[in-house]
Each structure stands twice: as structure tokens, then as C-alpha cells.
Amino acid sequence: MEQFLQQMASGLANGAIYACVALALVMIFVSTDHINFAQGEMAMFSTYLSWQLMTWGANFWVAFVAAVLLSFVLGVVIERVVLRPLHTAPVLSIVVVFIGLLAICNSVAGAIWSYLLKEFPSPFPKTDFGIPGLIGPHQLGVVVITLLVLTALFVFFRYTPLGLAMRAAAQNPQMARLVGVRVDWMLALGWGLAAAVGAVAGIMVAHIVYLDPNMMGGILLYAFASALVGGISNPGGAVAGGFIVGVLENLVAYLGSQLEKTTGVYIIGNGEKLTVALIIVIFVLTVKPAGLFGRVVVKRV
Amino acid sequence: MKSNRRTFIGGVSAAALVAGNTAAFAQKKYDDGATDKEIKIGNTNPYSGPASAYGVIGKGIEAYWKSVNERGGINGRMVKFVTLDDGYSPPKTVEMTRQLVEQEKVLAMFQTLGTPTNTAIHRYMNQRKVPHLFVATGASKWGKPKDFPWTMGFQPDYHTEAVIYAKHILANVKDPKIAVLMQNDDYGKDYWEGFKEGLGKDANKVVRHVTYEVTDPTVDSQTIQMKDSGANVFFNISIPKFAAQSMRKAAEIGWKPVQYLNNVSAQVSTTMRPAGFENVQGVITAAYIKDPTDKQWDNDDEMKAWRAWMAKYMPAGNTSDVNYVYAHAVSFLMEQTLKKCGDNLTRENVMRQAANHQKLRVPGLLPGITVSTSPTDFYPVQAVRLQRFKGDTWELFGDILAAEST
């Protein structure tokens, strides 16, 4: 029983990581209608920015805010400089650009900060926070921050004119332009916001998985799974998807080990965690292509 | 095999004849890649891709040859070091190696990096009869002179290291119940096989064996499973990121086993500090090289010389990266090997000299550890010393240990 509870708690904590990155993926999708493969690497880069500020003496939260703002600006710049000329290009060209961005972010970070593992501080108090033996203070903090970011995004997209304009620009650029939305800038803003959310995710994750240029590689896979399970167009769904995937993978490991104990044969377990996550994605997409919480988009032709 | 050797001897004597005719009195003999003025050595390294963290080894070696050339080269010959990026991708390694051997015509390949990458060119190098020296991997398969007389490893292999831990556990832990965390690939399995061999008939003392994939974000779930097994010994076969995570998690959930950590992750700055010093007290590992982030070597003469060398030839290099110490040490061994070849720079003689080191002291190795090779012993560094983590540094204890991996 103790193991079961610990596995659930650790699954939720991992789920919060996936949810954070999945949120950033959803951000780009909602505001530009693209899936950004470089999202993880951009988040990693932002995390290095905050680390750099901290080694220069900044306090954690100062570095946090500065890195998020810097990432926002960088996101806007990337959209303006790199993606702007490709507005009319086919999707495949854009995918190639994303993969190029991924490689560039990774190598530049490696060249500047080296590939050595770095520790990353946690802003949450070590005592009086979390449940001893079950969930650490930082893990609990990540869950809380994820939910905060989710709420902020929900409010932004639902109730602010700017948020609504951004959604309009992504879903129907022509109509949006006709009613006076500056579509170009909305896309750039979307990139900025996604980069900012990615920065939050990276900074939260780095204490757990440590800081190195490849820290996001595995996480991005799980984040994609989460976003797709929950519904790529729905921030709340992505967060729910993150928690579902996180808990499910630990359940697989837990049940697998129980099964091995009783039968003595290894059937399923740690080696199949990612496989199971991906099978879930395929299953959900077959049964419910828009994801568990996604809305079906009907396009009139 | 026999016919191979015969054709080889034929080739050498033919080469000797030709050489004898052209340069009658000088006792100089050359194969491809060696002249009066130059020795050409080839290398592949992952300067890009997932293993690019190791690319610093290639850069360190390049800097080493630069320093050798500034000192006047080896027996008056300049070393030309040609290193190419294989991105840690085996097919690319094959392509680059063929380019180096067939077009660049290097005398030898040196320090090609990676287990899968070296596996891909293992057969090729031996068919071509080009020295494949001091490869940068800890797998146990590089020291088999009978089957692969042109390939030689460098560092203590994973198999041997794991045997040493197993013996130490059996001798020192009362009623051991062992949990093993293993990376699910060749590197992990090499350790695991050695560990089981070392336990022998006590292999049933392993009560839990869990694996992780490199794509896993964390190993928290695995650590919880190990604790649940009631194990009192933890053998940790993982790379720094996961080693640090698992040791931190063990402390977090209140699991306090005797911990053995593989040498792959023994560096203070990339594993022990990130795991939290308070969580890793008493952890045991085996080491053969000096860790530049370990303060006990701050006043060590060899390390002071290394730091001066770094400042001069690798000023942008990170002096907390043990890979630079490694690059310097292995290049020193290569320099000594080539020096011993004298003016007989044939591939056959390079291999003969590589297999002819007696207790050679290589700067950067731990005190008391030396390099010895012979025609039947292709494992240059075979000894390790155990060390235990105390405070914020490793503390050596016990004798020099060597387990023959044959």
C-alpha cells in the first residue's frame, strides 16, 4: 500500500512536468495552428537564461521573471524573423524549420554552457511543504504552479479581447483580418506566449531532471502524448492529459512489478512505460480523434 | 585466421623489400600515414548529436597534439591529427573511418569514441589491419588480441568493475539483499553481466532488478520499487542524471541502503553535488582517474601540470570536466607508444609497441595505477581503487584492485 501511494504521488509529480510542457505545445497550437517540435529545446534554452542570471547573482524569482520575459521577446523575434517569410509555405517546410530550430537551440546551448549536468535550485521551502515520504516540496510546488499557469491562460483566452483575437487569428486568419484583427502580430504574440509558458515549464522541471541541453528530449515525447490525449486545442485537457499519462506510466510499472512478484515472470514493467503511453495516444486518437477533452472542429469546405 | 596472418607477413616482407631498395642505409620503415616529417592519426568523435558532451575529448586530444608539436613532435615528426564528426551514429562512423583509412591514409585510428560506433568499425579495422588503438569506451570486448589483434581498449572495462563491486559486497555486507538499477542498453548489460559473474552462486542475493530507458524523464518510480523490495544494498548502473536522481529520491523516501555507484557517474560536480551531498554520504565507487572537481587533488603536481596545460592549450575548456583529464592521459599513452616505435613506423610495429608497456606511469591516473600491456593483455588500465564519499569529496580506501577480465 505504501508503495502504491508513493507511486501515485510520484506519477502526479511527473504528470505535472508533462502538463507544463504540454501547455506550451497547446499555446502554440491554439495561437498559430502549428505543432512546434522545438518547444522543448526553446524551454531548455530559457532555463539556461535563468540559470545564467542566477549565477550572476540574481535571486530565483527575479531570474524567473526575467527569463520568462526574455523568452517572450525571443519567441516574438523567432516568429518575426524565421517564420514570417514562411506564412504561405506548406506545412512540411514549417516542420523542417521547427526541427532546424530544435537542433540549433540544442547546439548553441551546448556551445555556450557545455553539456555537463548542472544542478538547478528549487524556490520552494524545504520544510513545511509537501508530504514527507510521499511527495517532495518541489514536486508539490510544480503541481501548484502548473495549475496557476493553466488558470491564467484560461482566463486570458476566454475573457480578454486580446486572447479572443489571438484565437480568431489562428482559427480563421482571413475572417479575423476582415474584422480588424492584426493577424501577423497575433501570431507573433502567440509565439511569445508559448515561449514564456515553456520557460516556466523548463524552470520548474530543471530541479527534478537537472539542467543539461538534452533535458527536454524524453519529456517532449511524453508532453506530446499528454497534449494529444487531452486534446491539443484545449489547455485544460492538456494538463489533465499530463496527469493521466504520468499516473498511468507509474501504474504500469507498479502493476507490472506486482505481477512479477506473484507470477515470477516479467511481463510488463519499467521497460514498457513509454510504449504504453504511446499506445494510449493511438487508442485515444482512434476512438476520439480530438482528444478526451478536445472539441471537434468542423471545417466547411 | 591462419591465411590472414600469412598474407600479412608476406605483405610486411614485401614492404620491407621495397623500403630496403629505396632507402638502403636508413633503418626507417613506414606504412601509410608516416613519413620523415609527419605521422597522421585518425579519429572520430561526436561533435554533434546526443552524445556531444563527449566531444570535448576529441578537442582535448587535438590540443594535446598541438602541445606535442610545439615541443618538437615525436622523434622529430609532427603529429597530424585528423578528427571527424560522426554524431555518435554508427553508419556515419563507418563512413568517416573509411574516409580516414582509404583517402586520408592515416597510420592508425586512435580514441574513436563510443561503444556502438566502435562496434561498427571493429571488423573493418581488423580486416584492413590498421591499428584501432585505445578506443574510448568501457565495454569489455576491446581486449581480445586472439580474435581482434588490431583493436585495443584503454580504461578499466565495465565488466571488471562490476566484478569488483560484487566481491566487495559479499565480503563486507552482512546478509546482503541487493537492488540493481540498470540502464537498459549494452552499457548497462555489460555491468550487469559482470556483477552476476562476481556474485557467482550468490546471484540470488539480488532481490530486485529494475531498468530505465534514457528517454525516461525520471527514475523515481524505479527507486520506489527498489525500496519496496526491502533491499539493503543498492548497485547503481546509471549515467549522471539518473544516478543523481535515484540517490536523491532514495533519501527523500527514507531508503538507506549501502550504495555502490558505477564509475561512469562518479564525478563530484555532475552527480554528487546535484544529488545533494547530504544524500550521498558513504556511497562507494571505483575510480582510476583523478577527478578535477575533487579538492583532494588541488595541490597534486600532475593535476597542477594539467591545469597549466589546459590554460595554455585549451583556454576555453571547462576545467571541471573530467573528460579533459581523460583526453590528456590517453594522448600521453599514445605519445609514448609512438615514441617507442622510433623510426619503424609500420602499423605492425605500432601494435607491437602498444602491447609492450611495462608499468608506465600515465599522469592523471590515480596514485599507484600504471599501464601494462602484453601481446596477450590488451587492457591498458586494469586496476581501480575503491573510494567512499565523505563530506564533499571522495576518500580512497583499501588496496589497488584488479580483476582480470578474460
What key attributes describe this structure?
heterodimer, A: 301 residues, mainly alpha, globular, B: 406 residues, alpha/beta, Rossmann fold, 2 domains, 4-stranded parallel beta sheet
Fill in the CATH topology of the largest domain in chain B: Rossmann fold
Q: CATH homologous superfamily of the largest domain in chain B - what is it?
A: Response regulator
Q: What is the CATH C-level name of the largest domain in chain B? A: Alpha Beta
Biggest interface and its residues per chain?
A: A-B, 42 and 38 residues
Helix percent of chain A reads over 70%
Amount of beta strand of chain B: 15-25%
Low-confidence stretches of chain B: 5-11, 15-25
- Gap between N and C termini of chain A, in Å? 55 Å
Measured by DSSP, the beta-strand proportion of chain A falls in under 5%
Largest sheet of chain B: 4 strands, parallel
Give me the oligomer status: heterodimer
H/E element string of chain B? HEEHEHEHEHEHEHEHEHEHHEHEE
Average pLDDT confidence of chain A is: 87
Count of individual domains of chain B: 2
Largest sheet of chain A: none
Principal-axis shape of chain A: globular
If you compute it from the alpha carbons, what radius of gyration of chain A comes out, rounded to the nearest whole angstrom? 20 Å
Overview of this protein structure:
- The complex is a heterodimer of chains A (301) and B (406).
- Chain A is mainly alpha-helical and 301 residues long.
- Helices cover 73% and strands 0% of the residues of chain A.
- The longest helix of chain A has 31 residues, at 2-32.
- Chain A is globular, with a radius of gyration of 20 Å.
- Chain B is globular.
- The chains are: A mainly alpha (301), B alpha/beta (406).
- Chain A binds chain B through residues 2-3, 6-7, 10-11, 13-14, 17-18, 107, 110, 114-119, 133, 136, 205, 208-210, 212, 214-215, 217-219, 221-222, 249-250, 253-254, 257, 269-271, 273-274, and chain B through 48, 50, 52-53, 55-56, 184, 210-218, 220-222, 224-225, 227-228, 240-241, 244-245, 252-254, 269-271, 273-274, 318, 320-321.
